[in-house]
Amino acid sequence: QKSDFSKRPVIVLFGSLADKNWIKMLPLAESLASHIVLTMPSDSRAVSTAMLAEHISKDSSTQVVADLSEALQIGISLARNQNSLLLLTGSLALIGESFEHLNLNPFNRQS
């Protein structure tokens, strides 16, 4: 439920590999989003942004940005400007590549 996240809007950055159940995930992600940015990991198995866009509601506030680095910049900017949460979702390929672009290491436990 949306209330589980907080009262702040949620910016969703969504991209998936074709072998994941993205057709079921996308409406769930969309239902949480005040704005959704459709993108794709650089993996050859990624679902194209055009295909994702075909499955998004026409009523949604949506941007299509094929380049993940650019999509991250847009998502971060929107989240900062709107005091929103940024949710990266769709597949672990997207999350892992996003961490690389952001120079994040989830396994670095330095304090």
Helix and strand topology:
Layout: E1 10-14, H1 22-32, E2 35-38, H2 49-54, E3 62-64, H3 68-81, E4 85-89, H4 92-101
Parallel strand pairs: 1-2, 1-4, 2-3
Question: In words, what does this structure look like?
Answer:
Helix 1 links the parallel strand 1 and strand 2. The chain has helices at residues 22-32, 49-54, 68-81, 92-101, and strands at 10-14, 35-38, 62-64, 85-89. It has 111 residues and is an alpha/beta fold. Strands 3-2-1-4 form a 4-stranded parallel β-sheet, with helices on both faces. The protein contains 4 helices and 4 strands.
What is the compact description of this entry?
The chain has 111 residues and is an alpha/beta fold. It has helices at residues 22-32, 49-54, 68-81, 92-101, and strands at 10-14, 35-38, 62-64, 85-89. It is built from four helices and four strands; from the N terminus they run βαβαβαβα.
Features:
4 strands; 111 residues; 15% strand; four-stranded parallel β-sheet; 37% helix; alpha/beta; 4 helices
Q: Label the overall shape.
A: globular
Task: Indicate the percent of residues in helices.
Answer: 25-40%
Major beta sheet, strand line-up: 3-2-1-4
Structural class: alpha/beta
Which parts are unreliable, with pLDDT below 50 for 5 consecutive residues or more? none
Order of helices and strands: EHEHEHEH
Q: Tell me the radius of gyration.
A: 14 Å
User: Count of DSSP helices?
Assistant: 4
**Strand share of the residues?**
15-25%
Count the E strands.
4
